[in-house]
Specification:
Urease, subunit C, domain 1; 26% strand; elongated; 5 strands; alpha/beta
């Protein structure tokens, strides 16, 4: 990312601590900050924390953002670093019911029994027509 971006006025910032990707149980270890801000310059996060922290003013001086690079979150929450790496080009509708079931701890096979999961997507997109020949050739489509 080129340029500078500042997001301030964040009601709550939730971000993992550290400089490396999290996986497994460590993904639950979030740093939650009220009244926060984020400063990014040339793709590097210079600051993420409370807007009242003196380090925020220092990062602002270092980044020297133009006014059009400053976003006021107006109290909204912010989750920098969230990457939805499991997306598909074909859109077959929302599956928010399954999302809430998973959040409540429902096992995947129970969701499948209720007609959800990958079966729902395959039925909605005609995925069986595409998937079966590949499986018969020994490939595993994603």
């Amino acid at each position: 990312m080129e340029g500078t971006l500042v997001v301030k006025g964040i009601g709550e910032l939730a971000t993992p601590l550290g400089f490396t990707a999290k996986s497994g149980p460590s993904m639950k270890e979030l740093w939650r900050v009220k009244d926060a801000a984020i400063v990014v310059k040339e793709g590097e996060i210079l600051f993420a924390g409370q807007e009242s922290d003196p380090a925020f003013a220092k990062a602002m001086r270092q980044a020297a953002p133009s006014n059009d690079a400053i976003i006021d979150a107006q109290g909204a929450s912010c989750v920098p670093g969230f990457v939805d790496s499991h997306t598909h080009l074909v859109f077959a509708g929302f599956r928010e019911d399954e999302f809430f079931w998973r959040l409540s701890g429902m096992p995947y096979m129970e969701i499948h029994r209720r007609g959800g999961g990958i079966r729902r997507t395959m039925d909605a997109t005609g995925g069986q027509v595409w998937v079966r020949p590949r499986l018969s050739h020994g490939t595993s489509p994603t």
